[in-house]
Amino acid sequence: xxxxxxxxxxxVIPAQLGGKTYERNPLQPFGKKGKTLLExxxxxxxxxxxxxxxxxxxxxxxxxxxxxxxxxxxLKRNNTIDVEYNExxxxxxxxxxxxxxxxxxxxxxxxxxxMNEIDYSKAISIYENGINESTYDSxxxxxxxxxxxxxxxxxxxxxxxINQVSREDLAPTFKVTNGLFIREKSKILxxxxxxxxxxxxxxxxxxxxxxxxxxxxxxxxxxxxxHYENVKRSNQSIIFLDFDGVIVDSAKEAYAMALLSTGxxxxxxxxxxxxxxxxxxxxxxxxxxxxxxxxxxxxxxDENKDELFSELLPNGAGKEAKKFQEHFFATRQVIRNHFWxxxxxxxxxxxGSRAFIDLINQNNNIxxxxxxxxxxxxxxxxxxGTDREVTIYDxxxxxxxxxxxxxxxxxxxxxxxxxxxxxxxxxSHLEKCNWVENLNTIQAKWGYLPQExxxxxxxxxxxLIVSVLNG
Length: 471
Prior knowledge:
With 471 residues, the chain is of the alpha/beta class.
């Protein structure tokens, strides 16, 4: 289904024949159905953009006829590639773009078969946000390389001597894949180039960076088609997993941070989890969302109105609540950094939640969506046995979107997700997602719920996760 974009985009697929490398050919047969690379690419692009906005540019009548048969625009280029070798690249870019009557140009290579609609949709979303917020003026696809690089006779990103650093400590380098560029048309024409001064580097995986530029590339790419289709299929399903109340019970930690942040206690040794105050605080944990909510919970307890806390909690944070949240996260960082064992003891892995850690390790398409801060989540996941870098969307993403449902909807649309599952202990968060397409939800009933609603349904949840992941 084609997504309605905010901006006016023209998608150009430059598709010249010939050149110094013969195999760099948009008419190269590719895949089991015998279609050309150009047809393969057009099919991918049509899943994101309307046919009327797609322009194949070539001097070859054969190429242009294929474009027309695919239902997209065909633009005759003035010069063949042999003539263009004697032109500056800037003039070639100008010639390709000038007749496309659109405000922004999306330049897509036909010889990158594994860069697909998921990458393009994500790129458009990032570019639109970057232009609207004036943070980026253009975008290009890159492949991040954590490798030792030499340029000419010198090491480019490390000291090639006794001071050589480990691969993990290398400054990252980025290879421009040439698979995708996006920029405003008027600026391309003015500069005769498709990148500006503030470029967003869209990182793609190794498959998407693959460019067919030789006979060997064709053979390798053909052998990777089945793997690509399997990866793409798995990438079209996603699990959104809450953290607190699902994997870890951190209610006691939150209570400690709230007291320390407000000066009610000076050290963790003063913490009394058996006090009446602690019990009243913990009894209301099921109504907590972002950390600023704790400010109002403490206030409600002070005023003996904690039984009415859910009714008194405002929809947004006031000035003092925002200040409290800043102190809360800063305090957590200090305690985590300097009193690790004491801090860890306040965060307990739920009995049976080891299964979630195992699933996270086995599946890259499980992400964490939480109102907690990412460093704390990362530290706890590492402590409890995750052995991969887990994607965490934390309090900042929550604040940016205003709620989990808007974030999840944006993620699903931007990544062309076909099937997804959201697990949270908060029924409020789940109910707000009822309108989100391609999303199922299930409540973690072992989390922060009133006692009468408690149920250990981990087995049911885990079975559902496996079902979604297996398609």
